[in-house]
Amino acid sequence: MSQPILTLDFLDQATAPATEQLPADVRVTEATHTGRSRRLYIESYGCQMNFSDSEIVSSILFDEGFDTTTELAEADLVLLNTCSIREKAEITVRQRLKEINAHKRRQPGLLVGVLGCMAERLKSKFLEEEQIVDLVVGPDAYRDLPRLIKEVDNGQRSVNVLLSREETYADITPVRLNSNGVSAFISIMRGCDNMCSFCVVPFTRGRERSRDAHSIVREAQDLFVKGFKEVTLLGQNVDSYKWQSADGSEFVNFAQLLERVALVSPELRIRFSTSHPKDITDEVLHTMARYDNVCNYIHLPAQSGNSRVLELMNRTYDREWYLDRVAAIRRILGPDCGISTDMIAGFCSETEEEHQDTLSLMDHVQYDMSYMFFYSERPGTLAARKLADDVPLDVKKRRLAEIIERQQQHSLIRSQMGVGKVHRVLVENVSKRSTEHLSGRNDQNKVVIFPKKHYQKGDYVNVLVHECTSTTLLGNAVE
Ligand code: SF4
Protein backbone atom coordinates (compact mmCIF):
# COMPACT_ATOMS: atom_id res chain seq x y z
CA MET A 1 0.00 0.00 0.00
CA SER A 2 1.44 3.35 -1.03
CA GLN A 3 2.02 5.89 1.69
CA PRO A 4 -0.43 8.84 1.83
CA ILE A 5 1.33 12.05 0.77
CA LEU A 6 0.47 14.83 3.18
CA THR A 7 0.13 18.43 1.98
CA LEU A 8 2.43 21.06 3.51
CA ASP A 9 -0.32 23.08 5.21
CA PHE A 10 -1.14 19.96 7.19
CA LEU A 11 2.42 20.21 8.60
CA ASP A 12 2.05 23.81 9.72
CA GLN A 13 -1.22 22.99 11.45
CA ALA A 14 0.35 19.90 12.99
CA THR A 15 2.94 21.89 14.91
CA ALA A 16 0.62 24.76 15.85
CA PRO A 17 -0.12 24.86 19.61
CA ALA A 18 -3.49 23.27 20.55
CA THR A 19 -6.31 25.75 21.27
CA GLU A 20 -6.19 26.91 24.94
CA GLN A 21 -7.45 30.04 26.61
CA LEU A 22 -4.14 30.48 28.31
CA PRO A 23 -1.00 31.75 26.50
CA ALA A 24 0.71 28.91 24.55
CA ASP A 25 3.73 28.70 26.86
CA VAL A 26 1.62 28.25 30.01
CA ARG A 27 1.18 24.68 31.24
CA VAL A 28 -1.56 23.53 33.58
CA THR A 29 -0.94 20.54 35.77
CA GLU A 30 -2.81 17.35 34.84
CA ALA A 31 -5.15 15.90 37.45
CA THR A 32 -4.40 13.24 40.07
CA HIS A 33 -7.27 11.48 41.80
CA THR A 34 -6.10 9.70 44.96
CA GLY A 35 -8.92 10.88 47.22
CA ARG A 36 -6.77 13.41 49.02
CA SER A 37 -8.73 16.03 50.92
CA ARG A 38 -7.58 19.11 49.04
CA ARG A 39 -6.93 20.00 45.43
CA LEU A 40 -4.08 21.96 43.90
CA TYR A 41 -4.29 23.83 40.59
CA ILE A 42 -0.87 24.96 39.32
CA GLU A 43 0.03 26.92 36.20
CA SER A 44 3.67 27.09 35.06
CA TYR A 45 5.02 30.09 33.13
CA GLY A 46 8.35 30.55 31.34
CA CYS A 47 11.20 28.06 31.09
CA GLN A 48 11.58 24.30 31.48
CA MET A 49 13.24 24.92 34.85
CA ASN A 50 10.01 26.43 36.15
CA PHE A 51 8.01 23.54 34.83
CA SER A 52 10.37 21.08 36.47
CA ASP A 53 9.95 23.03 39.75
CA SER A 54 6.17 22.70 39.48
CA GLU A 55 6.69 18.94 39.45
CA ILE A 56 8.69 19.24 42.70
CA VAL A 57 6.00 21.49 44.27
CA SER A 58 3.26 19.02 43.30
CA SER A 59 5.26 16.23 44.95
CA ILE A 60 5.74 18.20 48.20
CA LEU A 61 2.02 19.06 48.36
CA PHE A 62 0.96 15.56 47.32
CA ASP A 63 2.56 14.39 50.57
CA GLU A 64 0.59 17.13 52.34
CA GLY A 65 -2.79 15.87 51.16
CA PHE A 66 -3.19 17.71 47.86
CA ASP A 67 -4.34 16.04 44.69
CA THR A 68 -3.92 18.12 41.54
CA THR A 69 -6.73 19.27 39.29
CA THR A 70 -6.84 20.89 35.86
CA GLU A 71 -10.09 22.65 36.75
CA LEU A 72 -9.63 26.05 38.40
CA ALA A 73 -13.19 25.85 39.72
CA GLU A 74 -12.38 22.62 41.62
CA ALA A 75 -9.26 23.99 43.31
CA ASP A 76 -8.70 24.71 47.01
CA LEU A 77 -5.26 26.13 46.29
CA VAL A 78 -4.15 27.94 43.12
CA LEU A 79 -0.43 28.40 42.50
CA LEU A 80 1.08 30.42 39.63
CA ASN A 81 4.72 29.49 39.04
CA THR A 82 5.86 32.76 37.53
CA CYS A 83 8.55 34.02 35.13
CA SER A 84 10.30 37.38 35.28
CA ILE A 85 12.64 37.18 32.29
CA ARG A 86 10.79 39.96 30.42
CA GLU A 87 8.27 42.62 31.39
CA LYS A 88 5.62 40.89 29.27
CA ALA A 89 5.91 37.72 31.38
CA GLU A 90 5.01 39.67 34.50
CA ILE A 91 2.13 41.52 32.80
CA THR A 92 0.70 38.12 31.80
CA VAL A 93 0.78 36.96 35.45
CA ARG A 94 -0.92 40.13 36.75
CA GLN A 95 -3.62 39.72 34.09
CA ARG A 96 -4.11 36.09 35.13
CA LEU A 97 -4.47 37.10 38.79
CA LYS A 98 -7.33 39.41 37.78
CA GLU A 99 -9.10 36.47 36.11
CA ILE A 100 -8.51 34.25 39.16
CA ASN A 101 -9.91 37.01 41.37
CA ALA A 102 -13.30 36.40 39.74
CA HIS A 103 -13.15 32.80 40.96
CA LYS A 104 -12.05 33.89 44.43
CA ARG A 105 -15.05 36.23 44.74
CA ARG A 106 -17.30 33.19 44.11
CA GLN A 107 -15.16 30.95 46.35
CA PRO A 108 -13.83 33.08 49.27
CA GLY A 109 -11.93 30.13 50.81
CA LEU A 110 -9.77 29.73 47.73
CA LEU A 111 -6.06 30.15 48.54
CA VAL A 112 -3.91 31.88 45.90
CA GLY A 113 -0.12 31.76 45.81
CA VAL A 114 2.68 32.88 43.51
CA LEU A 115 5.94 30.97 43.07
CA GLY A 116 9.04 31.35 40.93
CA CYS A 117 11.10 34.27 39.66
CA MET A 118 8.51 37.08 39.82
CA ALA A 119 7.71 36.05 43.42
CA GLU A 120 11.42 36.17 44.24
CA ARG A 121 11.91 39.51 42.48
CA LEU A 122 8.97 41.27 44.15
CA LYS A 123 9.03 39.45 47.52
CA SER A 124 6.48 40.86 50.06
CA LYS A 125 5.77 43.78 47.69
CA PHE A 126 3.67 41.23 45.76
CA LEU A 127 1.23 41.13 48.71
CA GLU A 128 0.96 44.93 48.71
CA GLU A 129 0.46 45.12 44.94
CA GLU A 130 -1.91 42.14 44.54
CA GLN A 131 -4.58 41.83 47.28
CA ILE A 132 -5.74 38.46 45.93
CA VAL A 133 -2.35 36.86 46.73
CA ASP A 134 -2.10 34.98 50.05
CA LEU A 135 1.27 33.33 49.54
CA VAL A 136 4.62 34.39 47.98
CA VAL A 137 7.27 31.67 47.74
CA GLY A 138 10.68 31.88 46.04
CA PRO A 139 12.34 29.06 44.02
CA ASP A 140 14.46 27.86 46.97
CA ALA A 141 11.68 27.80 49.59
CA TYR A 142 9.26 25.18 48.25
CA ARG A 143 9.98 22.79 51.15
CA ASP A 144 8.40 25.44 53.41
CA LEU A 145 5.08 25.38 51.51
CA PRO A 146 3.28 23.11 54.01
CA ARG A 147 4.09 25.48 56.92
CA LEU A 148 3.20 28.59 54.91
CA ILE A 149 -0.15 27.09 53.81
CA LYS A 150 -0.98 26.35 57.47
CA GLU A 151 -0.28 30.03 58.27
CA VAL A 152 -2.61 31.12 55.44
CA ASP A 153 -5.24 28.63 56.64
CA ASN A 154 -5.01 30.48 59.97
CA GLY A 155 -5.71 33.75 58.20
CA GLN A 156 -2.15 35.11 57.80
CA ARG A 157 -0.70 36.01 54.40
CA SER A 158 2.75 34.47 54.11
CA VAL A 159 6.10 34.97 52.37
CA ASN A 160 9.31 32.97 52.13
CA VAL A 161 11.78 34.16 49.51
CA LEU A 162 15.02 33.09 51.12
CA LEU A 163 17.56 31.98 48.54
CA SER A 164 19.81 29.03 49.41
CA ARG A 165 23.37 27.99 48.54
CA GLU A 166 22.58 24.30 49.11
CA GLU A 167 19.01 23.55 48.10
CA THR A 168 18.71 21.24 45.03
CA TYR A 169 15.58 19.26 46.05
CA ALA A 170 17.69 16.15 45.20
CA ASP A 171 15.69 13.89 47.56
CA ILE A 172 12.27 14.86 46.18
CA THR A 173 10.82 12.66 43.44
CA PRO A 174 8.97 15.00 41.09
CA VAL A 175 5.35 14.21 40.22
CA ARG A 176 5.51 13.94 36.42
CA LEU A 177 3.03 16.51 35.17
CA ASN A 178 1.47 16.61 31.72
CA SER A 179 3.78 13.76 30.96
CA ASN A 180 3.56 11.91 27.66
CA GLY A 181 5.22 9.04 29.53
CA VAL A 182 8.12 9.21 27.07
CA SER A 183 10.26 12.25 27.94
CA ALA A 184 10.97 13.93 31.29
CA PHE A 185 13.05 16.74 32.74
CA ILE A 186 15.76 16.17 35.35
CA SER A 187 17.02 19.29 37.10
CA ILE A 188 20.79 18.84 37.67
CA MET A 189 21.62 22.21 39.23
CA ARG A 190 20.05 25.47 40.39
CA GLY A 191 20.95 29.14 40.21
CA CYS A 192 23.52 30.91 38.03
CA ASP A 193 26.91 32.49 38.82
CA ASN A 194 27.08 34.41 35.58
CA MET A 195 25.96 38.02 35.79
CA CYS A 196 24.75 38.76 32.29
CA SER A 197 23.85 42.41 32.57
CA PHE A 198 20.31 42.01 31.14
CA CYS A 199 19.31 38.98 33.22
CA VAL A 200 17.28 38.66 36.44
CA VAL A 201 18.02 34.97 37.00
CA PRO A 202 21.02 35.41 39.34
CA PHE A 203 18.77 37.60 41.54
CA THR A 204 15.72 35.35 41.38
CA ARG A 205 17.38 31.94 41.49
CA GLY A 206 20.54 32.69 43.49
CA ARG A 207 24.03 31.21 43.35
CA GLU A 208 24.89 28.12 41.37
CA ARG A 209 24.82 24.74 43.11
CA SER A 210 25.08 21.33 41.52
CA ARG A 211 22.99 18.35 42.58
CA ASP A 212 24.45 15.08 43.85
CA ALA A 213 25.45 13.13 40.72
CA HIS A 214 24.24 9.83 42.16
CA SER A 215 20.73 11.19 42.78
CA ILE A 216 20.60 12.34 39.13
CA VAL A 217 21.63 8.90 37.81
CA ARG A 218 19.11 7.22 40.15
CA GLU A 219 16.34 9.49 38.83
CA ALA A 220 17.29 8.61 35.24
CA GLN A 221 17.31 4.88 36.08
CA ASP A 222 13.95 5.21 37.83
CA LEU A 223 12.43 6.98 34.83
CA PHE A 224 13.81 4.34 32.44
CA VAL A 225 12.36 1.54 34.54
CA LYS A 226 9.03 3.38 34.44
CA GLY A 227 9.14 3.31 30.64
CA PHE A 228 10.46 6.81 29.88
CA LYS A 229 12.74 6.86 26.80
CA GLU A 230 14.22 10.36 27.05
CA VAL A 231 15.51 12.68 29.76
CA THR A 232 16.51 16.34 29.43
CA LEU A 233 19.14 17.46 31.95
CA LEU A 234 18.24 21.00 33.03
CA GLY A 235 20.29 23.88 34.37
CA GLN A 236 20.73 27.59 33.67
CA ASN A 237 24.30 26.75 32.59
CA VAL A 238 24.80 22.97 32.53
CA ASP A 239 28.43 23.33 31.44
CA SER A 240 29.41 24.68 34.83
CA TYR A 241 27.97 21.62 36.59
CA LYS A 242 30.48 20.43 39.18
CA TRP A 243 29.73 18.14 42.10
CA GLN A 244 32.04 16.85 44.80
CA SER A 245 31.19 14.15 47.31
CA ALA A 246 31.14 15.18 50.97
CA ASP A 247 34.42 13.35 51.66
CA GLY A 248 36.02 14.96 48.63
CA SER A 249 36.88 11.58 47.09
CA GLU A 250 34.63 11.99 44.08
CA PHE A 251 34.42 14.92 41.64
CA VAL A 252 32.03 14.99 38.70
CA ASN A 253 31.94 17.63 35.95
CA PHE A 254 29.27 17.93 33.24
CA ALA A 255 31.00 15.67 30.70
CA GLN A 256 31.37 12.96 33.34
CA LEU A 257 27.76 13.35 34.47
CA LEU A 258 26.60 13.10 30.84
CA GLU A 259 28.54 9.84 30.47
CA ARG A 260 27.08 8.40 33.67
CA VAL A 261 23.52 9.15 32.53
CA ALA A 262 24.25 7.85 29.01
CA LEU A 263 25.37 4.54 30.56
CA VAL A 264 21.95 4.00 32.19
CA SER A 265 20.79 2.37 28.92
CA PRO A 266 21.51 2.81 25.20
CA GLU A 267 17.69 2.95 24.82
CA LEU A 268 17.48 6.08 26.99
CA ARG A 269 17.99 9.26 24.98
CA ILE A 270 19.75 12.17 26.67
CA ARG A 271 19.23 15.86 25.94
CA PHE A 272 20.42 18.84 27.99
CA SER A 273 19.81 22.59 28.25
CA THR A 274 21.15 25.27 28.55
CA SER A 275 24.82 25.43 27.49
CA HIS A 276 27.07 28.47 27.87
CA PRO A 277 29.61 29.39 25.14
CA LYS A 278 32.35 30.30 27.62
CA ASP A 279 32.10 26.95 29.48
CA ILE A 280 31.21 24.33 26.85
CA THR A 281 34.30 22.09 26.56
CA ASP A 282 35.62 19.76 23.87
CA GLU A 283 35.36 17.06 26.59
CA VAL A 284 31.56 17.50 26.54
CA LEU A 285 31.51 17.37 22.73
CA HIS A 286 33.65 14.22 22.61
CA THR A 287 31.39 12.59 25.22
CA MET A 288 28.38 13.41 23.01
CA ALA A 289 30.20 11.88 20.01
CA ARG A 290 31.00 8.69 21.96
CA TYR A 291 27.37 7.89 22.93
CA ASP A 292 24.68 7.48 20.22
CA ASN A 293 21.99 7.99 22.85
CA VAL A 294 23.26 11.50 23.70
CA CYS A 295 21.36 13.61 21.16
CA ASN A 296 23.27 15.53 18.52
CA TYR A 297 21.77 18.87 19.51
CA ILE A 298 23.02 21.84 21.53
CA HIS A 299 21.20 24.97 22.71
CA LEU A 300 23.99 27.59 22.71
CA PRO A 301 22.67 31.12 23.42
CA ALA A 302 24.71 33.79 21.60
CA GLN A 303 22.48 36.78 22.48
CA SER A 304 24.42 39.02 20.02
CA GLY A 305 26.92 38.69 17.15
CA ASN A 306 28.94 41.77 18.10
CA SER A 307 31.84 41.71 20.58
CA ARG A 308 31.27 45.25 21.97
CA VAL A 309 27.60 44.42 22.67
CA LEU A 310 28.58 41.04 24.18
CA GLU A 311 30.92 42.90 26.52
CA LEU A 312 28.11 45.30 27.56
CA MET A 313 25.97 42.21 28.15
CA ASN A 314 28.79 40.81 30.34
CA ARG A 315 28.59 37.52 28.42
CA THR A 316 32.35 36.94 29.04
CA TYR A 317 33.09 35.79 25.51
CA ASP A 318 33.41 37.62 22.21
CA ARG A 319 32.29 36.89 18.63
CA GLU A 320 35.52 34.99 17.77
CA TRP A 321 35.30 32.77 20.88
CA TYR A 322 31.67 31.95 20.08
CA LEU A 323 32.49 31.05 16.46
CA ASP A 324 35.37 28.91 17.68
CA ARG A 325 32.94 26.93 19.85
CA VAL A 326 30.59 26.46 16.88
CA ALA A 327 33.58 25.31 14.77
CA ALA A 328 34.45 22.76 17.49
CA ILE A 329 30.85 21.49 17.46
CA ARG A 330 30.90 21.12 13.67
CA ARG A 331 34.34 19.50 13.77
CA ILE A 332 33.61 16.97 16.55
CA LEU A 333 29.87 16.31 16.00
CA GLY A 334 29.58 16.96 12.27
CA PRO A 335 27.53 19.39 10.13
CA ASP A 336 24.25 17.68 11.05
CA CYS A 337 24.51 18.55 14.75
CA GLY A 338 21.47 20.69 15.59
CA ILE A 339 22.28 24.07 17.14
CA SER A 340 19.75 26.55 18.51
CA THR A 341 20.26 29.85 20.25
CA ASP A 342 18.82 32.89 22.07
CA MET A 343 19.12 36.31 20.42
CA ILE A 344 18.38 39.76 21.83
CA ALA A 345 17.67 42.61 19.38
CA GLY A 346 18.24 46.25 20.25
CA PHE A 347 20.36 45.95 23.42
CA CYS A 348 21.57 49.21 25.00
CA SER A 349 23.47 51.41 22.48
CA GLU A 350 23.47 48.68 19.79
CA THR A 351 24.27 50.34 16.43
CA GLU A 352 22.96 49.31 13.01
CA GLU A 353 26.39 47.85 12.15
CA GLU A 354 26.39 45.82 15.37
CA HIS A 355 22.92 44.53 14.52
CA GLN A 356 24.32 43.48 11.12
CA ASP A 357 26.99 41.52 13.06
CA THR A 358 24.19 39.52 14.69
CA LEU A 359 22.68 38.75 11.27
CA SER A 360 26.07 37.75 9.86
CA LEU A 361 26.73 35.50 12.86
CA MET A 362 23.40 33.79 12.13
CA ASP A 363 24.44 33.43 8.45
CA HIS A 364 27.69 31.81 9.60
CA VAL A 365 26.13 29.35 12.08
CA GLN A 366 22.75 28.71 10.36
CA TYR A 367 20.81 27.77 13.49
CA ASP A 368 18.07 25.15 13.38
CA MET A 369 15.93 27.28 15.69
CA SER A 370 16.18 30.35 17.90
CA TYR A 371 14.39 32.07 20.73
CA MET A 372 14.36 35.71 19.65
CA PHE A 373 13.29 38.80 21.61
CA PHE A 374 13.96 42.52 21.70
CA TYR A 375 15.69 43.86 24.79
CA SER A 376 13.35 44.31 27.77
CA GLU A 377 14.98 46.20 30.64
CA ARG A 378 14.61 44.27 33.92
CA PRO A 379 14.62 46.12 37.27
CA GLY A 380 17.66 45.53 39.45
CA THR A 381 19.88 44.16 36.68
CA LEU A 382 23.35 45.54 35.92
CA ALA A 383 22.08 46.96 32.60
CA ALA A 384 19.12 48.69 34.27
CA ARG A 385 21.50 50.28 36.77
CA LYS A 386 24.36 51.18 34.43
CA LEU A 387 23.16 51.34 30.81
CA ALA A 388 20.56 53.48 29.03
CA ASP A 389 17.82 51.52 27.25
CA ASP A 390 18.28 53.90 24.33
CA VAL A 391 17.37 51.92 21.20
CA PRO A 392 13.92 53.17 20.13
CA LEU A 393 11.12 50.56 20.33
CA ASP A 394 10.35 50.72 16.60
CA VAL A 395 14.03 50.09 15.82
CA LYS A 396 14.08 47.17 18.31
CA LYS A 397 11.01 45.69 16.61
CA ARG A 398 12.41 46.16 13.10
CA ARG A 399 15.71 44.53 14.07
CA LEU A 400 13.85 41.65 15.76
CA ALA A 401 11.74 41.16 12.62
CA GLU A 402 14.94 40.94 10.53
CA ILE A 403 16.41 38.36 12.93
CA ILE A 404 13.19 36.28 12.83
CA GLU A 405 13.08 36.42 9.03
CA ARG A 406 16.73 35.34 8.79
CA GLN A 407 16.06 32.50 11.22
CA GLN A 408 13.11 31.24 9.20
CA GLN A 409 15.32 31.07 6.10
CA HIS A 410 17.99 29.13 8.01
CA SER A 411 15.49 26.80 9.70
CA LEU A 412 14.20 25.82 6.25
CA ILE A 413 17.74 25.27 4.93
CA ARG A 414 18.55 23.10 7.94
CA SER A 415 15.31 21.13 7.55
CA GLN A 416 16.03 20.56 3.85
CA MET A 417 19.36 18.96 4.86
CA GLY A 418 17.22 16.20 6.38
CA VAL A 419 15.18 15.43 3.24
CA GLY A 420 16.09 12.15 1.55
CA LYS A 421 17.67 10.82 4.78
CA VAL A 422 16.52 8.22 7.32
CA HIS A 423 16.06 9.67 10.83
CA ARG A 424 15.75 7.71 14.09
CA VAL A 425 12.62 9.22 15.64
CA LEU A 426 11.40 8.76 19.22
CA VAL A 427 7.60 8.81 19.06
CA GLU A 428 6.17 11.23 21.63
CA ASN A 429 2.55 11.43 20.66
CA VAL A 430 -0.18 10.99 18.09
CA SER A 431 -0.03 14.01 15.77
CA LYS A 432 -2.26 16.82 17.02
CA ARG A 433 -3.90 17.11 13.59
CA SER A 434 -4.32 13.51 12.53
CA THR A 435 -4.88 10.35 14.57
CA GLU A 436 -3.45 8.42 11.61
CA HIS A 437 -0.07 10.08 12.11
CA LEU A 438 2.56 10.05 14.84
CA SER A 439 4.79 12.89 16.01
CA GLY A 440 8.26 12.65 17.48
CA ARG A 441 11.71 14.21 17.32
CA ASN A 442 14.93 13.18 15.64
CA ASP A 443 18.44 13.40 17.09
CA GLN A 444 18.66 17.10 16.11
CA ASN A 445 15.42 17.91 18.04
CA LYS A 446 13.41 18.43 14.83
CA VAL A 447 9.76 17.42 14.87
CA VAL A 448 9.04 14.54 12.49
CA ILE A 449 5.52 13.50 11.42
CA PHE A 450 4.73 10.19 9.71
CA PRO A 451 1.84 7.73 9.17
CA LYS A 452 1.58 5.54 12.25
CA LYS A 453 1.29 2.00 10.81
CA HIS A 454 1.78 -0.32 13.83
CA TYR A 455 4.02 2.05 15.76
CA GLN A 456 3.13 3.75 19.03
CA LYS A 457 4.30 6.26 21.65
CA GLY A 458 7.73 5.41 23.05
CA ASP A 459 8.89 3.54 19.94
CA TYR A 460 12.09 4.40 18.10
CA VAL A 461 11.19 4.45 14.41
CA ASN A 462 13.40 4.90 11.34
CA VAL A 463 11.69 7.49 9.14
CA LEU A 464 12.70 8.34 5.56
CA VAL A 465 12.00 12.06 5.15
CA HIS A 466 10.64 13.24 1.80
CA GLU A 467 9.48 16.76 2.56
CA CYS A 468 9.77 19.53 5.16
CA THR A 469 8.82 22.96 6.38
CA SER A 470 11.07 25.26 8.44
CA THR A 471 9.87 23.54 11.64
CA THR A 472 8.89 19.99 10.70
CA LEU A 473 10.08 16.99 8.68
CA LEU A 474 7.58 14.78 6.89
CA GLY A 475 8.25 11.15 6.08
CA ASN A 476 7.37 7.48 6.16
CA ALA A 477 8.52 4.72 8.48
CA VAL A 478 11.05 2.31 6.91
CA GLU A 479 11.87 -1.07 8.48
S1 SF4 B 1 23.82 32.57 31.92
FE1 SF4 B 1 23.30 34.73 31.87
S2 SF4 B 1 21.35 34.75 30.74
FE2 SF4 B 1 21.65 32.67 31.45
S3 SF4 B 1 20.59 32.52 33.39
FE3 SF4 B 1 22.72 33.03 33.84
S4 SF4 B 1 22.78 35.26 33.99
FE4 SF4 B 1 20.88 34.70 32.94
Labels describing this entry:
479 residues, alpha/beta, Transcription Regulator spoIIAA, 7-stranded mixed beta sheet, 22 strands, binds iron/sulfur cluster
Task: Give an overview of the whole structure.
By secondary structure, the chain is α/β, with parallel strands linked by helices. The chain is built from 15 helices and 22 strands. The strands form six sheets. Strands 1, 2, 3, 4, 5, 6 and 7 form a seven-stranded mixed β-sheet that branches. Strand 21 (460-468) and strand 22 form a beta hairpin. The longest helix is centred in the last third of the chain and has 24 residues, at 393-416. The protein starts with 7 loop residues before the first helix and ends with a strand. Residues 1-20 have low confidence and may be disordered. Bound molecules: iron/sulfur cluster. Residues 192, 194, 196, 199, 201-202, 236-237, 276 line the site of iron/sulfur cluster.
- Major sheet details: 7 strands, mixed
CATH domain class of the largest domain: Alpha Beta
Indicate the CATH architecture of the largest domain. Answer: 3-Layer(aba) Sandwich
Low-confidence stretches: 1-20
CATH homologous superfamily placement of the largest domain: Methylthiotransferase, N-terminal domain
State the share of residues found in helices, binned by percent. Answer: 25-40%
* Principal-axis shape: globular
The computed structural class is alpha/beta
Distance between the termini: 15 Å
